[in-house]
Amino acid sequence: MSERYGLAIGHVLHATDFGAGSTVAFAHALRLACATKSSLSILHVEREEDRRPDWSSFPAVRDTLARWGLLPAHAARSDVAALGVRIGKASVADPDPASGVLGFLHEHPADLLVLATHQRHGLDRWLHQTTAGRINAGSDGATLFLPVGTPGFVSEDTGEVRLRNILVPIDFEPDPEPAIEVVCDIVAALDVPECHVHLLHVGNPADSPGVSLPGSANVQYHWHTTTGSVVSAILQQARQVHADLLAMTTAGRHGLLDALRGSTTEQILQHAECPVLAVHEWLD
């Protein structure tokens, strides 16, 4: 590969609403921060400017690491730092959660954003831009979305990683290689012993793009082609291969139709049954 995109994770940002769905996202953010020995910022957006942050509501980092067997019970903060992880907690006031997260990212850029996403359906989906979609369109790095109600690939109880099958849609635009590179980086960081990366092209097999694939002893590649609606085909293939993660390069929104219904990535987020990793095309 002439140019390596990849993802050198130095700062992970987890945005939380303190809801039950956010605990799954927090487990993924913490596990990835531990694996990459990076800093982890935990952010809550307060809707009221005069409301004081409730720091006791933030997820318990040391208790979680002790439950995973990475720290002893009643560990000190210095014990967390000894793992190579730096933890920061922040609260910002903004009546709009997406605006609050993007404002924080502007001041504190992150390599990876991790957050839970609530899926809208029907008329509600058409009348509202989802918070997840707006954050994805407005951020520059990679974002890991955890649909509320799905367990993801990191166990909340043990920290164990279950990342056996990953689906990556491929086409000429946007370039799929950034997503493939980031997937391989995450697999390596998490020390996954064996992972199957499924590459899916929706359309004529003769029009499938050539893709340079990173070599890895832990990754096996599988090629798939199908026809039909791109979004429906991706979701169906994800179910067929029992995908633990769906990774996509995203180029944001283009044109009036996308502005109304959202980008392909945002449409996938509405119905995905597994975590979705969105990697911006310009990530380098």
Describe this structure in words.
- The structure is a single chain.
- The chain starts with 10 loop residues before the first strand and ends with a strand.
- It has 2 domains: 11-147, Rossmann fold, CATH 3.40.50.620; 165-280, 3-Layer(aba) Sandwich (Rossmann fold), CATH 3.40.50.
- α8 crosses α10.
- It has helices at 20-36, 61-67, 77-82, 97-107, 122-127, 131-138, 177-189, 230-240, 255-261, 264-271, and strands at 11-16, 39-46, 86-93, 112-117, 142-147, 165-169, 195-202, 219-226, 245-250, 276-280.
- Helices cover 33% and strands 23% of the residues.
- With 284 residues, it is α/β, with parallel strands linked by helices.
- The protein is globular, with a radius of gyration of 19 Å.
- Strands 3-2-1-4-5-10-9-6-7-8 form a 10-stranded mixed sheet, with helices on both faces.
